[in-house]
């Protein structure tokens, strides 16, 4: 395998990886998630048509240079949906900003221009270009049609479209890189902007060479040098963009993994709580076979993966519903229940924050046993976590203590001598 083939294979692999990883999000997400997935899929197919395998699949159709036409059409489609993604994601930040207005205008023009460009390319390809020439005349598309006015029109349209869209994408990613707070995200966005800049240079070099050879035909050696130079620019540009795009993707994937772990960690506590108070959950827990323990794993999987558009949204729902049920239980629980829970935790040797988490878990377990009591003023209750970022790790800690608590915790707490306390809200 040549170095060029190795680069192409690497780019195709990275594009396919991105497309596969983003497919679930694209199926559940909004237009911009689908646009980004579509860009990766279109670019992967376009690069595949650069390979001998891709051309071997299309060539039996008997239309000379058809792989080249399809490659260019897919590239235009990929750039168009990529520009749609860039426009949508930055439009959400500040739709009134001047640079966003310019990008939105370019995007509206690009959508119409993409269809017009594709139609023009197809028309020139079939009606103007001399396709009697084959790879025996030259291994390169530009070499086979050098000097033809149709080639100047064909590639002129294609390169102009690519350069314009890449310039807009590069500008937006470069601007985002300057204001990004995380070093990893800033580096990734800068690489994506640099990749688009290289693609613009690639298009300009190809256009300049095309204009020169249309007026004064160049030697085959010059054409070969141009092909190697522009291929290098193309490989470098796409590699930079792809490697840069992996950084935000990796960050997003890491956030999803952390959210899934948190959802799994909170699941048992959440399930027990929302089953205690009817109607407290937006989506009731899975109850296959009536919730029998033999299918508990399947019920857990259904709760963890269903209903919500993303693990982060599911985690937010779990936390909200846990706190909603907790507040309702405060209206049913004895006034001194938390104090008894704290005393039991300390009697077992727990101290500090660990004692607080264990006490909260014991309180929840005991309060669920009296969930049918008449409502009254909320009982005293103490918890940690002032915002979502701190509340999730705290509830994870409480959930671990809850899973480890004895089934007889409530009875043990009832046996403790009650301490008279005023019935106060937190």
In a few lines, what is going on in this structure?
This protein has helices at residues 3-28, 31-48, 52-58, 66-91, 98-127, 141-144, 149-179, 183-215, 220-276, 296-305, 311-330, 337-347, 352-369, 388-404, 409-415.
Task: Report on this structure.
- The chain is mainly alpha-helical and 426 residues long.
- It has 15 helices and no strands.
- It has helices at 3-28, 31-48, 52-58, 66-91, 98-127, 141-144, 149-179, 183-215, 220-276, 296-305, 311-330, 337-347, 352-369, 388-404, 409-415.
- It is elongated.
Oligomer: single chain
- The ordered H/E elements are HHHHHHHHHHHHHHH
Choose one word for the global shape: elongated
Percent in helix: over 70%
DSSP strand content: under 5%
Q: What does the radius of gyration come to?
A: 31 Å
The parts where pLDDT drops under 50 for at least 5 residues are 419-426
Q: What's the β-strand tally?
A: 0
Instruction: Look at the structure and give the mean pLDDT.
Output: 84
How many helices does DSSP assign? 15
Head-to-tail CA distance between termini: 71 Å
| Major sheet description | none
Structural class: mainly alpha
